Every structure is written in C-alpha cells, then in structure tokens.
From TrEMBL:
Organism name: Peribacillus cavernae
Ranges of residues in domain Glutamate/phenylalanine/leucine/valine/L-tryptophan dehydrogenase C-terminal: 217-458
Active site positions, chain numbering: 140 (proton donor)
Summary of subunit composition and partner proteins: Homohexamer.
Stretches assigned to coiled coil: none
Site feature (Important for catalysis) residues: 180
NCBIfam families per UniProt: PRK09414.1 (NF006929)
Name of the protein in its database record: Glutamate dehydrogenase
Length: 460
C-alpha cells in the first residue's frame, strides 16, 4: 500500500470516475430517493482519497456492494383504532450490512417514513456503528405510523402488529433494533412484550433501549445527547475552548435534545432554545430542564406550553427561526435537513464556533459546505451522535452476561468511546490529507474497517 506522496493525479482521477459512476448508478437504480442519494453523495465523495491511495477497494467492487442493502423488508401493519376503525400502515426494516456484526439500528415511527428515509438512515448507520469500535453491523427500520395524538392502547396495538411481522427477521445474533424518532421506552416495551409472547423465549438482547426493570442499560436514555456533548467538548478542547460560559442553541425536545441540554448545562453552558415540529422556545435564562422533561417525557404536550410555566421565555411558530438566535455552539437534535444553506449562513454571521449534529443528517450538503468554508468546528452526525448506539451495544453486552453495570460505569465507557471516535476521525482526516475535516475523517475511519471485513469474507 502506498503513502500519500505516491498518489498521482491519475490515481485521483480514476478514483473520482469510479465514485461518480457508482453514484450515477445508485441514482438510476433508486429513483426519487433523495435523502438516500444525499447521504450516499456525502460519503462517496469523502472516500475519493481512499480509492486513490488503495485501488484494491475499486477492484473488489466495494462501493457497488456496500451501497446495496443486504436485504430490505417491507410489510403491512394492520391495526384497529379506538373507534374500531381498521388502519393500515407500512413497516420497513433495512438490513444493510453485516460485515462486522449483527445488524443494529433504530426504529422510527413518523408519517414521513419511506424507503428513502430508512435507507439513508441505514446507510449512515453502517459507518457510525463501525466508528464506535464495537462489533455491530448497520440496519434501520420503522413505519409511517404517526404516534402523535394516539392513545396508549392504540400505540400498543400498532406496536404488537408491527412486531408480529418483524419478529421473523430479527434475533440477538441477527438484527437488534432500538428506538429513534417516535420510538421510546413505551414503544420498546410493547415491542419486546409481543416478541416474547410470539417466540416464547426471554431473549433480552433482541431490542435495546429497554426499561431498566427488564434488561435495559443505565445511561442508555442519556447516551446520544450526552455523547454528542462529549464529542463537541473534544472538538472545543483542541482549540482551547469549552462549554463553560458559552451560549448554546438546541433544536428538538425529544430524547437526544433533552440529554444534550442536560449535559451542556452541567458543563457550564447556557442552553437558550429547544423546539418541536410546530415552533421553538427562546428562554434567555436557560431552558428549565424540569419543565421540559415534565412536558415532553411525562405529559407528552407541545413545547408551546413551556411559556405558561416560564412567562419570561418566548415562543415562536415555525422551526427554522431557532437558528437565528445568536450562539457559540449549535446542536441540531431534531431531524434531517433542518439546517439549510440560509440557516448555516445566519449561524456563521452570528458568530457560531462549533456545530455538533445530535440528529441524523440535520445539515444539508450546502450547509456543511458553509460551515467548512468558514472554518467552523463541525462534528458530523455519524461521529457526534454515535453514543446512542455505542451504549446500545453495551446494553447487548450486559444482556449476554446477565449483569447490569452502574450508571457511572456506563457513562465513563461512553465518554471514553466518544473521545476515541474523535481521535480516530481526526487521525483518518490527517492521514488522507484533510486535517481537521471531521466529515471526511468520520466517513473514512468508518469505511475502512467495514470494507476490509467485506474483502476478507469474500464476494457474498
Ligand atoms: N434516540 C437515539 O438514541 C438517537 C441516536 C442517534 C441519532 N438519533 C437521531 O436524533 C434525532 C432525534 O431523535 P430522538 O430519538 O430524539 O426522537 P424523539 O422522537 O424523541 O424527538 C424528536 C424531536 O424532534 C422534534 N421535531 C420533529 N421535527 C422537527 C422539526 N422539523 N423541527 C424541530 N423539531 C422537530 C419532535 O417534536 C421531537 O421533540 C433523529 O434524527 C434521530 O434519528 C437518535
């Protein structure tokens, strides 16, 4: 294998043509799957220096293989609502890549879910899971079911119907789903119960994000949000900066957002915003976590009701305005493509120093270009939000040895894993000629391990 100095312009040209050819084929083969195209483009382009330096990946058809899911399952999910009316949703599970371990990735219940969304999330998950250093492959799933406004009984009937099909495709050594948007502890509980009833076995390692009383891991709820903050802390440290005394803008008010707010606040930052799909809160005194948790985790209400408890805070309709609040650090933790080029420019002109992606693909490709062109510290999702799946893998480990570790122990492991991911991404970026570029670093570091395992295992 050559060194960077030996890479010629011809090598780079061959690598570019390879990437472009496979990308065009992906677009033709998967028409109108825009989110999937977006993530494929971002990852493929980062890998050009790898193919220029190591052409054996081209000879082994790695891109053609890695971009085609090993399996995509779609299924009917019929259920009956509280009025006795029959409803039908569509279920998905993409089992994308099992080169380094059983498929692992969350389930999303949201009306926007379709094959493109599930494939973009599943493709990202391959590289993210590889970055954690744990033996987990890439998968993702979900349904276009909208949990908003549904009763607990409706959620249960839907979850039971969903699992009545999914159970035949998963297993502790096959595929281990977890939560994502719209799937939290309540839904995981219903899914677990139905799996256990159908299979007649107690396999704790079949799902992660379980309740603490039946095989869940301490610190799993906090892991994605805490992990994103630990990752950003490393980025800041390298520049002599820290969370202490900084102003932070967070979007979303779900699982990732709440615990990103909690950890950033513990580290001495003032978090002044949070949002939901209707609008956002600006609280100049710092978001009150007790109120937020009560509203979102217990009462499941809209974020607008925050101002009833804190009249000094302001509520604004619409989601994009959150990026107009001046801040030192922005943590997008809601959903994909929530920061576009315009929002990125506003953040930059207001003096943002660092972005940490808690959500998956929250920045458009154009927004990422704005951040990189302006030398803003940028922690891409597959690295910054890998803490959730990392602790899910720790939950699997605890389940298989039938032990539970203390909160402090899991949190310390999470912290260590996030520091390791940061260092590996920085090193890969450096090795391939893009010092400090964590987008390139994360994609390359995640890719190499999976690609090498695929080559070792032959054409399968
Ligand atoms: N839960 C995890 O462990 C985990 C791990 C890695 C990545 N993620 C990603 O983090 C993001 C959030 O997931 P979550 O688990 O917190 O989900 P969640 O359902 O708990 O919360 C999502 C939040 O985003 C809000 N929201 C939805 N659309 C919005 C919009 N357009 N603008 C502002 N707010 C909006 C919702 O109201 C909700 O408060 C997703 O992109 C998910 O894929 C989650």
């Amino acid at each position: 294998m050559g060194t960077l100095q030996e890479v010629t312009q011809d090598d780079v040209q061959v690598a570019k043509e390879y990437v472009s050819e496979v990308y065009q084929a992906v677009k033709e083969r998967n028409p109108i799957e825009n989110e999937f195209h977006q993530t494929v483009k971002e990852i493929f382009e980062s890998l050009i220096p790898v193919f220029a330096k190591h052409p054996h990946y081209i000879d082994n058809g790695i891109l053609e293989r890695i971009v085609e899911p090993e399996r995509l399952i779609t299924f009917r999910v019929p259920w009956v609502d509280d009025q006795g009316k029959v409803k039908v949703n569509r279920g998905f599970r993409v089992q994308f890549n099992s080169a380094i371990g059983p498929y692992k990735g969350g389930l999303r219940f949201h009306p926007t879910v379709n094959a493109s969304i599930i494939k973009f999330l599943g493709f990202e998950q391959i590289f993210k899971n590889s970055l954690t250093g744990q033996p987990i492959g890439g998968g993702k799933g979900g349904s276009d079911f909208d949990p908003k406004g549904k009763s607990d009984a409706e959620i249960m009937r839907f979850a039971q119907s969903f699992m009545s099909e999914l159970y035949r495709h998963i297993g502790p050594d096959i595929d281990v789903p977890a939560g994502d948007i719209g799937v939290g502890a309540r839904e995981i509980g219903f899914l677990f119960g139905q799996y256990k009833k159908i299979r007649g076995v107690y396999e704790a390692g079949i799902l992660t994000g379980k309740g603490l009383g039946y095989g869940g891991s301490l610190a799993r709820t906090e892991a994605t949000g805490y992990g994103a903050v630990y990752f950003v802390e490393e980025m800041l440290k390298d520049k002599g900066l820290s969370f202490k005394g900084s102003t932070v803008v967070v979007s979303g008010s779900g699982n990732v957002s709440i615990y990103a707010i909690e950890k950033a606040t513990q580290l001495g930052a003032k978090v002044v915003t949070c949002s939901d799909s209707n609008g956002y809160i600006y609280d100049p005194n710092g978001i009150n976590l007790d109120t937020l948790k009560k509203l979102k985790e217990i009462e499941r209400k809209r974020i607008s009701e925050y101002v009833d408890v804190h009249p000094e805070a302001e509520y604004y309709e619409g989601t994009s305005g959150v990026w107009s609040i001046p801040c030192d650090i922005a943590l997008p933790c809601a959903t994909q493509n929530e920061i576009d080029e315009t929002a990125a420019n506003v953040l930059v002109s207001n003096g943002v120093k660092a972005i940490g992606e808690g959500a998956n693909m929250p920045s458009t490709l154009e927004a990422i270009d704005v951040f990189l062109a302006n030398d803003i510290l940028f922690g891409p999702a597959k690295a910054a939000n890998a803490g959730g799946v990392a602790v899910s893998a720790l939950e699997m480990a605890q389940n298989s040895i039938r032990l539970s570790w203390a909160f402090e122990e899991v949190d310390a492991k999470l912290h260590q894993i996030m520091e390791g991911i940061y260092r590996n991404c920085m090193k890969a970026a450096d090795d391939y000629g893009y010092p400090g570029n964590l987008v390139v670093g994360a994609n390359i570091a995640g890719f190499l391990k999976v690609a090498d395992a695929m080559i070792d295992q032959g054409i399968i």
